[in-house]
């Protein structure tokens, strides 16, 4: 089973937000998932990314592959966490 860390689209038309999830690559984009790792709301100006880095690192150590978009979000969160 190949696990991907990717975005899951939620919300209503014109007001979308995303959950960062660990899911089998064969599952649909908005279908089943294994675990919720965080959220991303592109319409908010402040603090729009909320990702649990411990859970993400745990999944990556088990072989999960983040998508390009999620990889960039993880870098942003890690950068903010390192600055604190």
Automatic annotation (TrEMBL):
Gene3D superfamilies found in the cross-reference section: 3.30.1320.10
In the UniProt record, does the keyword DNA repair occur? no
What is one term from the GO cellular component aspect held by the record? ribosome
Residue stretches in coiled coil: none
Alphabetically ordered keywords of this record: Ribonucleoprotein, Ribosomal protein
Pfam families according to UniProt: Ribosomal_S16
Q: Which InterPro entries match?
A: Ribosomal_bS16, Ribosomal_bS16_dom_sf
The record's annotation in SUPFAM superfamilies points to:
Ribosomal protein S16
In the UniProt record, does the keyword Ribonucleoprotein occur? Answer: yes
> HAMAP family from the xrefs?
Ribosomal_bS16
PANTHER family named in the record: 30S RIBOSOMAL PROTEIN S16, SMALL RIBOSOMAL SUBUNIT PROTEIN BS16M
Family indicated by similarity: Belongs to the bacterial ribosomal protein bS16 family.
Q: What is this protein called?
A: Small ribosomal subunit protein bS16
């Amino acid at each position: 089973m190949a696990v991907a860390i990717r975005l899951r689209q939620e919300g209503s038309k014109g007001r979308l937000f995303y959950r960062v999830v660990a899911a089998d690559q064969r599952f649909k984009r908005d279908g089943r998932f294994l675990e919720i790792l965080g959220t991303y709301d592109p319409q908010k100006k402040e603090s729009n990314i909320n990702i649990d880095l411990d859970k993400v690192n745990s999944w990556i150590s088990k072989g999960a592959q983040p998508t390009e978009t999620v990889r960039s979000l993880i870098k942003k969160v890690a950068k903010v966490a390192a600055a604190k």
